Amino acid sequence: MTPTRTSPARRSFLASAALGGATIVGASALGALDADAAFAAPAPSLDPAVTRTSFAEGRIGAVKGSVLHVAGSRGETHRIQLTNATSVWKARPTTADAIEVGDGLYARGVEMPDGAIAADAVWVNIVNLYTTIRGIQRDRLHLSHGGHELVARTIPETAASYAGGALTSDLSRLRIGQPAQVLGAWRPADNSIDLVRVTVGH
Amino acid sequence: MACSSNALWAGETTWFCCGAAWGPCGSAGGGACGNCASAANHGAWPNASQACWDITRPDLCGEGGIPRRGCGSVMNVTHQCSGATVCITITDCGPRTRSFCGEQSCCGGSCRINRVLDLTPAAFTAIGSLDSGVLPVLITE
Amino acid sequence: MFSLIATVSPLLLAGLLGWTGLAKLRSRSLLAQAGRTALPRLVRGPRRAAHVLRASGAAEVALAAALVAAPEATAPAVGTALIGVAFLVYLGAAKAVAPESSCGCTANDTQPVTWRSFARAGFVAGGGVVALGADEPWWSTLADRPLPALALLAAGATALAYLSGGPVAFRRLRLRLLGNPLSRDARSGGPHRVPVAASVELLERSLAWETVSPLIRSGLVEHWDEDGWRFLHYTGARGSEGGDRPVSVLFAMDATAHLDRPAGQAIRVSVVDQETEEVLPVTA
After folding, report:
1. Which of A46, A135, C107, C227 has its CA 20 to 30 A from that of A147?
2. From the centroid of its chain, how far is CA C273?
3. Are the beta carbons of B19 and A74 separated by less than 8 Å?
């Protein structure tokens, strides 16, 4: 399902490194709910890497080697340089091979002296839409989004969150008429989306 | 107002697209303020106007005190877990807080409840991953 | 077959007319509803329009009762055919003078007049004519040939549900009857795995993530499961004397853990220099 980025030998090395690493018991949930306390707490003493970055958006016009030529939606152009450290998302974590001309893209990276962006992460065709569920079938949801009909196809990765619960592959609790936040991958060929995550309230 | 450090609100942020765009986002338009753009560090606030409030209705989730911050307001948004920060301008109305009452995101033993902010892809990627969908944030101004 | 359809059609017509008629009679906002239709323009005034709607509702209910009680009598069938024709004429006029107006057909709908409104009115008109051909009451047919009669009733009711509610109401009805097709068993066949997105969600809210996120620049690069562990691979950079060095950040977590299952939330993390493959301390 997921294309292999690294060789089995390197995976095995990385796995043993991970298992030999520090164990950190993750605290989650059941924490303090007081926002004042959160503001009063010392800001994390870090210099987050992601805030020193550039952003690019648009349709992919050409793929030349490891460089994506992107036409921005407001008429600008970008060159996006992919490296072996770049994460590629297209409905799932994948490789640069999955990127096609005509796809939409958001990229985060570092601008190089020649104007190209060395990408840390690219998200291909990703959309996050506020919709209403209008129909449920075995392999798809029918959604309305801003007055338009939208078909969302389920894929093996499709997950749902109900009323703030953890993501689950159980989609059986979705109901027609529910407002739903839908995260998916747009399919330029037929304007439907691959459904990655659907979040509904109570 | 500027991107300063006075506490404004805390909660979850999600992301949306606006302005000229590809795919299903193409129909989104320039948002409530007319100038919203996915590639700019913009955001949508649930109390950008009275008409906006009537759509988002955060009060139905117990967030009745969210102050009015109209088009052009500037806020600093900090990821609660990583401390990553982005300075944004409000250019739209959102998110639909009332549809997801009680949803929470936690880290470091502290939780942020309810969707109180929507960020453009440019702003959201500055503090997190788009495929995460939702992040806990502290908002200052 | 024709006789079967003829004897069953009064029941279908009665069901439809009874429902739409009662909806009009019991509506508390009939005046407002009438205002959304083309009727005020056709009969000159919203009050008159509301009266017309109420009179129509009463006629529909009366016809429905007569169709059920006296299915072989001529009058109810003729009356039904006539009211169907009247609906068609009204819809045609409405489409002409106010194309965007609501149908008013069921008293609480706000949908504009569509081809479905015409089809339903046509069904009433045609059904009345067909019902004239009934050679025995519906209860005899139900007793003699229950299976074909019930099948026909179900098919007719389904078609009417589609015509009345449109695709959404139809899909809702289908879900209610057939169950949710996205049930656990119907999807992917395999055991109920924890989605990777659920692991990522747990990871991003963990202390492990908080500790090393300053190093991480990428999104999730790849993931794999092995021996009950789920490995999540990110890339990033760590500042050193010679400038930033590219690193891999590896997380290992229980493959079955997620936010709602607090057991097994211990997450192991390590940072590996991509060039030297040296395992670096997690915190500098």
Report:
1. C107
2. 52
3. yes
CB contact under 8 A, A18 and C259: no
Q: Which residue of B has its CA nearest to A92?
A: B131
Q: What's the CATH fold of domain B7-135? A: Barwin-like endoglucanases (2.40.40)
Chain B residue with the nearest C-alpha to that of C198? B132
The secondary structure of A90-138, three-state, reads CCCEECHHHCCCCCEEEEEEEECCCCCEEEEEEEECEEEEEEEEEEECC
Say yes or no: C140 and C221 in one domain: no
Residue type, C137: P
Confidence of residue A199 (pLDDT cuts 50, 70, 90): very high
Residue C183 falls within a domain, yes or no? no
So what's the pLDDT on residue C108?
Answer: 52
Residues C133 and C257 both lie in one domain: no
Q: Where are the domains of chain B?
A: 7-135
C256 in contact with A at a CB cutoff of 8 Å? Answer: no
Does B78 contact C at CB distance below 8 Å? no
pLDDT of C224-244, one tens digit each? 999 989 999 999 998 877 778
On whether residue C34 sits in a domain, the answer given is yes
Q: Which domain holds residue C128?
A: 2-178
Catalogue all structural domains in chain A, each as residue range(s) with its CATH number: 50-124 (2.40.50.320), 126-200 (2.40.50.140)
Tell me which DSSP letter residue A191 carries: T
Structure tokens at B100: 């997801």
From residue A189, how far is each of A185, A193, B23, C92, C115 by CA, in Å?
A: 12, 10, 10, 39, 30
The A residues from 138 to 197 touching B (CB cutoff 8 Å) are: 145-146, 148, 150, 161, 163-164, 179, 181, 183, 186, 188, 191, 193, 196-197
Q: Please tell me the distance in Å from B65's CA to the nearest CA on chain A.
A: 13
Q: Do C192 and A170 touch (CB under 8 A)?
A: yes
Q: Bridge-partner residues for A79, per DSSP? A: A69
Total-model pTM: 0.79
Contacts of B102 in chain A (CB under 8 A): 163-164, 201-202
- The interface predicted TM-score (ipTM) is 0.94
pLDDT (0 to 100) of residue C116: 85
